[in-house]
Amino acid sequence: MLSSIHIKDFAIIEQLDLDLQSGMTVVTGETGAGKSIMVDALSFALGARADSAVVRNGAKRAEISAVFDIKKLKPVQAWLDEQMLDDEDDCILRRVINHDGRSRAFINGQPVNLTQLSELGDFLVDIHGQHEHQSLFKPQTHLQLLDRFADLSADTQELRTLSKQISSISTKLASFKESLKDKNDRRDLLTFQLEELEKAPIDRAKDIENDHKRAANASKLLEQGQQSLMALNEDDENIVSQLGRIIHIISDMQQMDRGVTSTHDLLQSALVEIEEASHELRDYIEHLDIDPAEFQQLDQELTLLHDLARKHQVTMIDLPETKQAIEQELEQLSGDEQTFDDLEKELSHQQDSYSKIATKISKARAKSAKELEKQVVKLMKDLGLGNGVFEVALNPTDKESYKSQGLETAEFMVSTNPGQQPQPLRKVASGGELSRISLALQVINAQTIQLPTLIFDEVDVGIGGGTAEIVGKLLADLGKKAQILCVTHQAQVAAQGHQHLMVAKSQHKKSTQTELQQLDTDQRIEELARMIGGVEITETIRNHAKELLN
């Protein structure tokens, strides 16, 4: 529960220190005294957005600190432990707002961001504002109220997560489908090119080129080979014969001078090499066949290789590398198809999960809608709308849309006159009727909230008399299970409080300040009398105030 609140230089509050008790605390005061300022300050301590306008005129900064007793609040303790923040019996939330609009937030003395402050605040306080009934004009809030009443926060959060995931996967799949269309065209082209390369003798390109050149020049090779062979070993004056005579002469010289021995040996080796070359050349000529069919085959293969090289803009020798690159790209495209299949499977799984949780939520909504109708109708009678009818219309949505709200929308339907068919709340309820229905919904929702502190900021606007007394009793009953802080103009509501605080505004020469006073019994009677009677307070009014208080 909220143990105390400290406010400094906020709006028209110079400094305020307030200790709070369990049960129902009421806050009253003249119009414009600043009753709701304390609620606004607490909202900022809980993470609401703020600007420099909240800083008191002439001050450098506004400071708000709220101390909560969390000894029995296990979820709060778990959250603090998860965030690695101090976990003591008391939890202190502090917000500092500078005059330039910047702000800092602290939990138990440690700096935090506004998201953390807001998350923790959701475990501690629920604030119902005086203008909350205006949200009933928006049908989208009706489903939120129903889900809150049905305690579906965990399920609806899971549904929203699934909806986002389905939307994200669907977007990826759509993008993949578009890209796969282009990739399929690319794959068809690559497959055709690969088949061409696989059929062509690309691994023998160098040999084919050489064989083609040999076959194309076979006649010339034969002619020149024969000429060379005759010159080496077959003419009358061939090189072998001439070299033999020279070796014979050098051999005679060697008998006379051993100095020519080296020359003799070299010439002898040359003769052996030339004779060996002659044998190889003769063998080459004998096997130099001129086959027109072979040449035609080689010519076709070489033409094909040249065409493929030109098509892929590489040399014939590089065609095997081109084939390997095409195979790798095709393998990658097959991997993209696998990714697409995986996404489709994941989408189907998420859609199945969505359908299961959405169906579960739909059943819970239908059941809770009936119970909510009963409770609202009962409170409407207590609040002076005895002939009121309240219904929750659940309208199915497209099951294939996988929307974040689930399989239906909700709209509150009312009738406040006998014989009138229920119509959408935004169309038929008057201002006074709307505020009462809103109050009934807030009280009912408050009963389902497992939070330590509930704040009602002038939610009783537009009611009075016996209806106000009933509202006061309803809030007092809530005070038995949670701490209630109620800002009110109604004496019948204020009289039900276990603790009574009065806000007063004092004006000085250069400033206006708001002060808060805790009232004892006599002071409460005077304040209630003021609220009942206005300017002139008679003994009769005081006696009425005493009766209300008793």
UniProtKB/TrEMBL annotation:
InterPro entries per UniProt: DNA_recomb/repair_RecN (IPR004604), P-loop_NTPase (IPR027417), RecF/RecN/SMC_N (IPR003395)
Protein name per UniProt: DNA repair protein RecN
Keywords: ATP-binding, DNA damage, DNA repair, Nucleotide-binding
Keyword check for DNA damage: yes
Domain RecF/RecN/SMC N-terminal: 1-511
Purpose: May be involved in recombinational repair of damaged DNA.
Family in the record: Belongs to the RecN family.
Organism placement in taxonomy: Bacteria, Pseudomonadati, Pseudomonadota, Gammaproteobacteria, Kangiellales
UniProt xrefs under Pfam families: SMC_N
Record flagged with keyword DNA damage: yes
CDD domains listed in its UniProt record: ABC_RecN
